[in-house]
Amino acid sequence: MAGQIVEGAGGATNLALVGIRRGGVPLAEKLAAHIEELERVRVPVGAVDISLYRDDASTALPKPVIGRSDICFEVGGRHIVLVDDVLYTGRTVRAALDALLDYGRPHKIELAVLVDRGGRELPIQPNFVVRVVEVAGADRVDVICEQQGHRAVVYPARGGS
After folding, report:
1. What is the structure's pLDDT at 87?
2. Which end of the chain is more exposed for a tag (fewer CB within 10 A), N or C?
3. Angle at CA 108, nearest 5°, toward 150 and 141?
């Protein structure tokens, strides 16, 4: 995926990765390390917390625990790749876009995910994806970080057959 991202960006010079807290941050850091191996350039990595940007923040988060957004580079004019572990409804990505745009106006924004499980509620699609899986709406997909890499695990809904 790192090679595809660099190729899509036309090189690593103007590229930056932004992980969506929580699962996207370690993936963005891992991608940056792979890009550095390939291109001998360390691309900047940032993180966005979407808690306050969620469209259900007032109902789903009565006592929200707000994480830190950490973008220590100029966003304006850059080719940004948002990184997340699992793409489902698209609402997390929509919130991340809103959060990212508070930092400036990038030249281009693309989306990289480890797992696309379908079930979109918004017209959002990944530009880069490692695995597409078909999962029932009530089932859950978690990505587990292991020493050798990442592994996606599907948890069936409780009480189902």
Report:
1. 94
2. C
3. 25
